[in-house]
């Protein structure tokens, strides 16, 4: 395949180089396994520690994910977005090489339940860092990019526990021109999707041709239902606000320490914190998460607004003061407000 010139200085590795770096993809070097394929820890000849993603099979789907990762690497340049060092595209091999993140993924740390690694200040740092990365993709990249797969498993942590959002294989590069997407396969600019997985989801999802502007119309809903924005589940139409919804889900998991859709969350705030967090700040963070996950996409804030609130430490800039987030001009009740709950109040006062 031909990798498009991204304008970024990516290194093109030989397959032999990456075989040596990972000791021929030794099982003991395996870090995990994602949708693209297994991930291995490796040492390059210059001593650099890297993570190597190897496609488990060469298919139309993996080829598109590979191409998207490389192309997005030429657009995104931000401390909170995972940089791509290089790639290998020899024959049927497709590999991606990234810096190794010492503290692995947020998902793994939450499962370990070790409050020494995820105290409240670190959780706030993660919330802000991921928000900054997404805001950069949405507002500073030209064209804008929808990450499309924001989750705890795709948030990596460096040695200082600074978050780095990665895995751009499902990203959508948006264009401000009208594009017709239809049939069983659609594309916008540099990105395209197939319906290989459409059978896993409700057959009522529309796959008819659509016209879209600043919107990506996907003919196959790829993410887990419940972890995607409701409007995307209904229509297959993905916008920047779908990322905001996923970010809100991530916030709820970061706060509670639990998977929000597949486990019953007994307490709002992670009990492993043992009450060592500012209750007012925790409450505002919960409210922000609920705002981001509002069913009405027009109510959700932009990621740049989320960054603004978090940079002001939440309680210094109360989201309820934003009249644009209220139901109507005559109703000052914010969309994200919810009735008092004894269990919520108890969790916040722990």
From TrEMBL:
Nucleotide-binding as UniProt keyword: yes
Q: Which SUPFAM superfamilies match?
A: Protein kinase-like (PK-like)
What segment(s) does the record annotate as region Disordered? Answer: 320-350
What's a Pfam family this protein contains? PK_Tyr_Ser-Thr
Protein kinase domain ranges (all copies): 25-318
The keyword Membrane appears for this protein: no
> Taxonomically, which superkingdom?
Eukaryota
Which PROSITE patterns does this UniProt record tie to the protein? PROTEIN_KINASE_DOM (PS50011), PROTEIN_KINASE_TYR (PS00109)
Q: Which UniProt keywords are present, listed alphabetically?
A: ATP-binding, Kinase, Nucleotide-binding, Serine/threonine-protein kinase, Transferase
Q: Please list the GO terms describing molecular function.
A: ATP binding; protein serine/threonine kinase activity
Q: Which Gene3D superfamilies match?
A: Phosphorylase Kinase, domain 1, Transferase(Phosphotransferase) domain 1
Q: What is this protein called?
A: Protein kinase domain-containing protein
Q: Which organism is it from?
A: Eucalyptus grandis
